[in-house]
Model the fold of this input.
Amino acid sequence: MSESASLIEKVEELKLDDDFVDPWNVTSSSDAGVDYDKLIERFGSSKVDAELLARFEKVAGQPVHHLIRRGIFFSHRDLNAILDMVEQGKKFYLYTGRGPSSESLHLGHLVPFIVTKWLQEVFDVPLVIQLTDDEKTLWKDLTVEQSMKLARENAKDIIAMGFDVNKTFIFSDLDFMGKCPAMYQNVIRIAKRVTFNQVRGIFGFGDMDPIGKIGFPPVQAAPSFSTTFPFIFGGKTVRCLIPCAIDQDPYFRMTRDVAPRIKLPKPALLHSKFFPALQGAKTKMSASDTNSAIFLTDTAKEIKTKINKHAFSGGQVTLEDQRRLGANTDIDVSYQLLRFFLPDDEQLENIRVAYSKGEMLSGEIKKLAIETLQPIVAEHQEQRKLVTEEVLDQFMSIRKLNF
Amino acid sequence: MSESASLIEKVEELKLDDDFVDPWNVTSSSDAGVDYDKLIERFGSSKVDAELLARFEKVAGQPVHHLIRRGIFFSHRDLNAILDMVEQGKKFYLYTGRGPSSESLHLGHLVPFIVTKWLQEVFDVPLVIQLTDDEKTLWKDLTVEQSMKLARENAKDIIAMGFDVNKTFIFSDLDFMGKCPAMYQNVIRIAKRVTFNQVRGIFGFGDMDPIGKIGFPPVQAAPSFSTTFPFIFGGKTVRCLIPCAIDQDPYFRMTRDVAPRIKLPKPALLHSKFFPALQGAKTKMSASDTNSAIFLTDTAKEIKTKINKHAFSGGQVTLEDQRRLGANTDIDVSYQLLRFFLPDDEQLENIRVAYSKGEMLSGEIKKLAIETLQPIVAEHQEQRKLVTEEVLDQFMSIRKLNF
Done:
């Protein structure tokens, strides 16, 4: 039984509205996925509401990205303060990351990077991308060498999304920690101010956990501070905005707690919802369960087969029932895929209405999802071919950025 | 009340033969200091016995250093295996270190370095010296910058002892971690294989301790493996011998436990007894208690005053009693200072006999101790003047060593 399958069982034993969210596991007892309003309350973040969206559009001077305006990026911390800075002509920087546990990324991995890229282009700011290969060595059955190799492969996928090498620094912890003393120094400053009790509360660490895991959170925290990158910021204090999935928030709650005590500004955050597994929103898409995920290496045929075979349907079982009752788009994975990857709002709304009313069938919406994703993945594969080892080394080299 | 004073009280409440030894505190209820035979039993190390001393002399091809032959280096792990390697013409390397918590070293700090230097010269082997400025930031009220500055000052004192720059690499963790990816990679390999339960058992860490402390032991462990220094050993596996005070053994018990699991050889160890505080062997000489210590920056007059005023005497209170009963040299700090710093065995034995019999008075042995230490400290001060920032940078630069 896979880890996530057994976790679903565990959660289903609990009362119906129980969700489980930490940086390593996400499960919900509901077919519609995690209750995000409750999560905002539990985590103490703020909702991205209509007012904030309107302000965001005004400051950006253009419509916000569909992943933001559709509420997929639904929660934030201090985003208003970042918009204040933009209005005052001050620069911030972007930080996001990824834990390299598989050779290829899947579609869900793209989500934070898509919005990060949009933010970078709109606001013309530098971006640092952390690959936590140290985390993956500590949590998975992977050697240091294997994790570092996965980090480089994942970085190629990220670069293929079209990031600007002049404004983007990509680093792997197992490499970068040994190349920038400021990184380790900030890790120590943070690790001095967080107790075992605190990380047990935040991350659920226990007595049997390796000290490597216990010592890891400051490593993910450190890039939230511009002083970690003296070669980019020249030691200046620049505020940070972190687009990430909401499950990473515990790291940054900890970071924000420490920040004033080391006299550095708290990072701001913009949180996304989870990208559903093909089997449905009870879990997120996971690289370790190949049937749950559409990989960026999948062929057009594989994408078609996976969606037809595995994509959880919110439609009715019989044709008659579907025509009569219509589908539940909240739990229909094909529809959710379109929400993430079909940019045209009007077209999406037409699909939603037709499918909800029973004018459209499950097979038809699957076909639409397949036809939307196939060219995106194919284009990604074309772009990735252009990412040579040399291009990768350029992105990962310690250097000044232009901004 | 100083930390060590309150610890003495704590220990005195326990039964008479209780000693307390960990990497941060050493106290004994006995005026003669820690019961070292019991410590060997408790730590599971081996005694440096007459047989090993004889073999050591044979392999070294010369008399062993007086600190070894007088039993001040009294315990070891796998020293025979190192001597086997020497006989087989194989090279090992030396690793020792220091936690930089004060601007100047005191006499006790010199002890492991004196024997390390002797071993390096006799066996012509490379040496790495770790300055754990990260540890001091984590344990003391010192900033990263302050600790790094102390590390450099301490390194100058170490260099002044006459180490060969061609065979010796000195590094500060807060600097080196950011300059050598292999260091962090080995830290992670070790930290993956040690649980919180284990470090709680070994070091007494608790739930309220910062995760920086909990994560530190692998940083002291990593230099026990030659793969941490690819620029010296070219990635080759070379066995390590660590001369250190016995209170550092917990780190290396942990290291030796992990070593086979990362397929690297266990470091060998040669342990010294503690250098007594001037007030007596119930505690070790400590830089944080200036009256307990003779610093390498002390003037001849300060040395004289400190010994006359503070050095605990094993002699009798009245002249008559001393003439009649003689002194107890086991607890007499001036005699102990001579055991550490007077190389001539015959002269030392004459002093011991005369003082024990009451032929020599407390004031006379204090005078001998003063006259022995004054020129050693003065000579050190002369040598230290020659250690410029440039010389220091040379010792601390990442480079190949000659061996």
